[in-house]
Amino acid sequence: xxxxxxxxxxxxxxxxxxxxxxxxxVKKLVASFLTENFERFKMEVASLEGKEFCMMYLKMIDFExxxxxxxxxxxxxxxxxxxEAEQVLDLLAEKIRNEQ
Length: 100
Description:
Elements lengths: L20 H16 L1 H10 L2 H15 L17 H18 L1
């Protein structure tokens, strides 16, 4: 007997957060690829210099150190020393220059 539209044989469905078979397979393939190519990756990174090395280093940090929330954060300049405030402004100015 066929199911009615919008119904299935499992009314509860797959449990929330459980990966489907395709996702599990892809994750295993990616993990295998990363493991097999780790030594090559280390050699490639070791050959980088200057800005390229710094960019790769920062990208790798993203996997180890969680980023702050992408929500806007307020800086209370009244709580910063003059030197700290200048450092914040210098970093912001550099970020703006790099985005242009």
